[in-house]
UniProtKB/TrEMBL annotation:
Belongs to the CDP-alcohol phosphatidyltransferase class-I family. Keywords: Lipid biosynthesis, Lipid metabolism, Membrane, Phospholipid biosynthesis, Phospholipid metabolism, Transferase, Transmembrane, Transmembrane helix. It is a multi-pass membrane protein. This is CDP-diacylglycerol--serine O-phosphatidyltransferase. The chain crosses the membrane at residues 7-28, 90-109, 121-142, 148-169, 205-222. Its EC number is 2.7.8.8. It comes from Virgibacillus dokdonensis. Its main location: membrane.
Length: 228
């Protein structure tokens, strides 16, 4: 076994394990920890592919493993989190609604897997499940300061946008930042999260950034349809 080829897969498996831990924390009513592990998985997911390209060890195995990890960490785990925090009181109806998220996400992943490699280097079709799961986890992480109606609307939009034909620019060719930059960002986030006032400021920004992003994606979808 070539260890060099397995390095990216270790990050992918770490992503998958974060999804498992998130589901476990959700079942234990530790919802913030569950959301945080989804975000950690998002970080690992952004690294594995870049490392594979950096080491020139991209493989069909890595691609399939990445999809399996993504459907768990950014599909199943967020849907569990959504159900237990927002839809539990609706019983089986809430369970059915939350289950739509991994269904749409799985369809989006399958469509991505049959997309030509050259095309995926320039743009994605539909919002990647990684982004959708990360947005949902972030909203639930700050659910005490965000109305449940707002989260539900975003949830529905994310499901729709994952299976849409909107073209989203890919960042695969963007170089990784230096280690010092990564460490600085992580330290800054830790300091930021330790201040309640800063926490609320960040929550307020979610009301602006996420709707603007989704409105822009919807506009792109309408514009593409109108031009055909």
């Amino acid at each position: 076994m070539n260890f060099k080829k397995q390095i990216p897969n270790l990050f992918t498996l770490g992503n998958l394990y974060c999804g498992y831990l998130s589901i476990g924390y959700t079942a234990s009513n530790h919802y913030k920890n569950a959301a945080i592990f989804i975000l950690i998985g998002m970080l690992l997911d952004s690294i594995d592919g870049r490392i594979a390209r950096l080491l020139h060890v991209e493989s069909p195995l890595g691609k399939e493993l990445d999809s399996l990890a993504d459907i768990i960490t950014f599909g199943v785990a967020p849907s569990f989190l959504m159900y237990y925090t927002m839809l539990f009181d609706l019983g089986w109806i809430g369970l059915a609604i939350s289950g739509l998220f991994p269904l749409f996400g799985a369809y989006r992943l399958a469509r991505y897997n049959i997309t030509a490699k050259e095309e995926s280097l320039h743009h994605f079709t539909g919002i990647p499940i990684t982004i959708a799961g990360g947005i949902l986890a972030t909203l639930i992480l700050f659910r005490e300061d965000i109305p449940s109606t707002f989260t539900m609307v975003i949830f529905i939009l994310l499901c729709f946008l994952m299976v849409s034909t909107i073209q989203i620019p890919s960042l695969k060719k963007v170089r990784l930042p230096r280690n010092e930059t990564i460490v600085t960002i992580l330290i800054g986030m830790m300091l930021f999260m330790n201040h309640a006032r800063s926490w609320r400021v960040f929550t307020s920004l979610l009301y602006i950034v996420i709707p603007l992003y989704l409105i822009y994606m919807t506009y792109r979808f309408i514009k593409i349809k109108a031009s055909r």
